[in-house]
Amino acid sequence: MGRDWVGPALRVALFGLAGFVGLLVLGFALSPLGALVSATLSVFGAGAVASALVLRIYEGGRLTTIGFGWHGAALRHLGYGMGMGAGGVVVVLGVPLLLGKAEFVATPEAALNLPSLGLVAFCLLFGAVGEELLFRGYVFQVLVSSFGFFQVLLPLATLFAAMHAGNHSATPLGLFNTFVWGVLLGLALRRSGDLWLPVGLHFGWNVTTPLFGVNLSGFTMGLTGYTVRWNADELWSGGGYGPEGGVPCTLACLGIGYLLYRLSFERQQLPLMPEEE
User: Fold this and answer.
1) Quick one: CA torsion of 142, 52, 202, 204, rounded to 10 degrees?
2) Dihedral of the CA atoms 186, 190, 193, 199 (nearest 10)?
3) Is 219 helix (H, G, I), strand (E, B) or coil?
4) Can you tell me the distance from the alpha carbon of 234 to that of 44, in angstroms, rounded to the nearest whole number?
5) What burial letters (b/e) apply to 100-112, b meaning 16+ CB within 10 Å?
6) What is the C-alpha to C-alpha distance for residues 122 and 207, in angstroms, rounded to an integer?
7) Beta bridge pairs of residue 219
8) Nearest in space to 84 (alpha carbons), one of 225, 275, 253
9) Cα dihedral 32, 33, 39, 45 sign
């Protein structure tokens, strides 16, 4: 553990203040554009502004410091992450569909609309980047350098889940699964040494979920002209929170964790995190 905690504490406090103000201001400014746009772009804006501020003051303004440098394995890490995230959704929803525990039903009022689909994908990408900047970026890495990886991983994953507690139809199981996701995304950062893997994992899950016509963390998007109707209770379907609120998601998280452990990554060295972490 590092001896100097005052410096990191000041940096974390500045980041937190900038991020909090950014969320409030941008959330209010973007609210007329709808819940999804406001939620995702305000998170991205807050994460980007807070990161740019502290990086400019303390680290010379380099995004490479927190793992956004483009290197030889960056595209592969991004692709691996997207594949694991998308694959998790396919398993969580595909297996119940094959077993007859769920079925597709048409929703003509939400017919396929490519411009809307593109806008949602755009928002979800920036939302994923923003949440990674806030929860696995500068603050996470500075705290790890002072207190150790696992001492920081669980509290930040708890905060990550708490940020979703106000989402529509949030349940204890849904928030637990969101906490587990926070753990997985932190482990992805540790395994790859960059933010490309956790961003890919985060975005892959988020962008694939609405393609099945189901809710994502309580958000209803209705983009494809169909949805999934379950022949099982909310313990399995996740109810209004979406598949993240069900037991299949918990099992999928275990599978993704196993893949993170087994797959080979070209780990980069993050300047803010010591080599042994």
Assistant:
1) -150
2) -20
3) strand
4) 31
5) eebeeeeeeebee
6) 9
7) 216
8) 253
9) negative
Other beta carbons less than 10 A from residue 276's beta carbon: 6
Answering whether pTM is above 0.85, one says yes
Length of the chain, in residues: 277
Q: Which amino acid makes up residue 221?
A: M
DSSP 173-204: HHHHHHHHHHHHHHHHHHHHSSSHHHHHHHHH
Write the pLDDT tens digit of every residue in 117-157. Answer: 899 999 999 999 999 999 999 999 999 988 899 999 999 99
Alpha-carbon distance 174 to 243, whole Å?
8
CA atoms within 13 A on the CB side of 270: 27
Query: What is the H or E stretch that residue 25 is in?
Result: helix 6-30
pLDDT digits (tens, 9 = 90+) for 44-76: 999 999 999 999 999 887 888 999 999 999 999
